[in-house]
């Protein structure tokens, strides 16, 4: 789901019925073609959660729209529940109403991998690519890539294909240790150290897969290879500075998924088709 950068303010008229009188009202933070995402609370004021609402589509027949919305909400919820049961890192489902097109999910504290890597790129702009700080940066990126590969491998191992596997749909859950040490420069001083200290970006924390609106249950190696290809293209186009590290993703994927060998071989075929398509235009 592609979200707008600056979504309009939330209004209760856009919310499903149970949330018309919620105080404070849910706050819209992402607006997609099929669903709206809000931050709100669940049971307790201190328990933050995500509300995903699929609003009615006026261009569809009401009966068809209701059936499609119900099917998609239930399908996504079942996928998330299955992933959680099999220890795949995804948000937990807290509540849903398929008839009214909404689902409440666990709030994941942190940011997307896309946001983290973009901040990392800005942080290292104009800084020499050597020394102790750079080596630590390389280790952190390698560790991030390995955790991404492991998470995707675990998902594929239980027969789930994401369908929209990009760095926008990979969350990096914040860890207390990372927050406490976020201003550390490991004792390094010199030109540029102050800049690095002010804008320290840590890549530690658990990878959490999100947005399963296009997910399917599949045992087909082709489907899993396409998942990996989409992710590889996302790294190449959005994060070219770490594109070479995608090999770490594939290595960790191979170690976490017993059927990876066949999928990785199929990935080569998918890449070839992708190159031919690019050449033809």
What can you tell me about this protein's structure?
- 43% of the residues lie in helices and 16% in strands.
- Residues 179-198 have low confidence and may be disordered.
- The protein is of the alpha+beta class and 281 residues long.
- It is globular.
- α3 packs across α7 (246-256) and α6 packs across α8.
- The strands form 3 sheets. A 5-stranded antiparallel β-sheet has the order 1-2-3-5-4.
- It contains 8 helices and 10 strands.
**SSE-based structural type:** alpha+beta
Uncertain regions: pLDDT < 50 for 5+ in a row?
179-198
Question: Helix-strand pattern, N to C?
Answer: EEEHEEEHHEEHHEEHHH
Any idea what the shape is?
globular
Distance between the termini: 25 Å
Number of strands: 10
In angstroms, what is the radius of gyration?
A: 20 Å
Q: How are the secondary structure elements laid out?
A:
Elements: E1 27-31, E2 36-42, E3 44-53, H1 62-85, E4 93-97, E5 102-106, E6 110-112, H2 113-123, H3 132-157, E7 160-161, E8 170-173, H4 176-180, H5 193-198, E9 207-209, E10 216-217, H6 221-238, H7 246-256, H8 260-280
Antiparallel strand pairs: 1-2, 2-3, 3-5, 4-5, 6-8, 7-10, 8-9
Helix pairs in contact: 3-7, 6-8
